[in-house]
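[agent] plan:
  1. take the single chain provided in the ticket
  2. run structure prediction with default settings
  3. attach structure tokens to the ticket
  4. add a short note for the reviewer (M.T.)
[agent] executing step 1
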Amino acid sequence: MDKATTQTVNHLNSFLRGELAAVETYRLALNKLDQSPHRALLEHCERSHAARARIIAEEVRTRGGQPSDGSGPWGTFAKLVEGSAAALGEKAAISALEEGEDHGRDDYRRDLPDLDPGARHRIESDVIPEQNRTHAAISSLKKSMS
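[agent] step 2 finished; step 3 output follows
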């Protein structure tokens, strides 16, 4: 792999770990908030993050890379934050999910210019719009709970 491809694969794997952490976090929230009236929205967001993880893993493989198979340190952090938030209640759990959505959005914005043109196009067309949708949905939910 040349240097540019290696850089793209590294950024894609970072995105992938973030998406896997998001899936873990939503699953934790769904387990803790099983009676929530917002369950359908949370399930939709979890499925959206899982779909993005599959897209990103495909992009890594296309470039000859090995997709990350875990969320790494972000997953550990997500579990810690979500676990304490869920213990405090639904509003705190939603707030923790919004923080995760903020982090994901910011990661894509920061690293997008460093990707090769093909990966950049795929992330811009198939991943970022979904990131924006789940971010907006969770932000709106949080505001409605205030």
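[agent] step 4 note for reviewer: The mean pLDDT is 89.
[agent] ticket updated
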